[in-house]
Amino acid sequence: MNIVSRGANLPAGRQLRSRRGLDRRGSLPPTSASGSETAATTTGSSALLAPSSAPSPARSSPAASAPAEVVTVHFRQEGRSTQARPGEELMEAASRCAADIPTGCLHGSCGVCEVELFRYGPDGQLAGGPVVMRACVARVPRGWARVEVAMMPLDAVWGQDGWDT
User: Fold this and answer.
1) Coiled coil: which residue ranges (predicted)?
2) 83 CB-near residues (< 8 Å, 6+ apart)
3) How do the domains of the chain map onto residue ranges?
């Protein structure tokens, strides 16, 4: 049996790299969170993070200079409202203003946290009927000025006999 040391069969100029820091796809992020490192690619599919000697340029984009979009989220049962960013978890907004939404599984299977969402446009008009969502996996929708959250009666979720039939 021939035992070969790690990296002995690599082409000249190539070396083994650590897998630490790789994301799920097997690639390194282009910069660190602070922006002080840059990605230097090598031949093949791996990349090496090397500290950059040059200061990172200030990043300006239209999104950074424009005011952030916010949605008013109103919880009807508690009579409380909060401001939320589109895409933010609905349960985060609820906890921020101490709105009580009952939970069970916290991943959308049981239905205990089902709520009705009423969406209002910038003109303050209700846009269609309510949408039933499970609050534990729902996110604040984009493009609406105001969202009202109403708890559904548990009979509507679980049915009269404790089963949703």
Assistant:
1) none
2) 70, 71, 72, 73
3) 1-56, 69-158
